[in-house]
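Researcher: Here's the sequence for the chain we discussed earlier.
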Amino acid sequence: MPHLFDVDDLGPEDWDAVLRLAVCETLGPLLGGQGVALLFEKPSARTRNSTEMAVVGLGGHPVYIQGAEVGLDVRESAEDVARTLACYHRVLCARVFDHAVLERMAGALRASGFEVPVVNLLSDQAHPCQAVADTLTLREALGPLAGRALAYIGDANNVCRSLAKAALLEGMDFRVASPADYTFSAEERGALDAYAAKVGRGGTVRLTDDPAEAASGADALYTDVWTSMGQEEERAERLRAFAGFTIDEALVARAAAGVVVLHCLPAHRGEEITATVLEGPHSMVWRQAAHRQTAMRGILAWSVGGS
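Model: Thanks. This is the structure I predict for it:
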């Protein structure tokens, strides 16, 4: 089954296929009235709306399920929830706290003979659907991305991990500017270097603790909130650690003249990004949000064997 846990589940050919399917205007009703389960342990405005509308656009029927409705690993195991949903649905999409839950679900489906793909709508480790939307936005704004520089300023979190792999598949120079305690580990960095070599598209990863260095000459600047859902108790500590890592007009001025600014939202204006940059002429944030639906169209089409 073509499960999608993170971007590196897609080889270069599959990656290109997802992006091609996302913008294809002649896909037709690939889901043909079949159900798609949308299991949400964590709420999200963009993920729910984009996925539901992508399912509808492919002729399917989305069913939104809150975590409390199934009592994941409380009232019923993740494995049993997955097998139950597979009785009714063509695809199982899940937004979870723990990445291992996705792997357990897929393992249970495989062991029980269910041919139902599992799609990661977000976990603590990865956000592949966001990375596809980001790439679609960057391609639209910049054209071919090979050799372009993308600077991520902030916490090297789940969004950053998936974005790094997408950038390597595009042959980009991916730069990460984070405080020392919030950057990729040596093991993660090594895995990304190995992935770049495996992909073979000329992409690179560079780490720094200097936002100005990362932004210098960059074709795109990207950021995310410093305190994600579930990290509220760390907020004060994170605000101190990330002081100086705001994407503001001074940082934009260090980038390339036609720099594109991205943010996966929700945004905390005045923290990771200023209001003037978020609403300014370089911002592609709302186009990026719109491409969440485009991305889900490609991912769902790929997962059911669309061509």
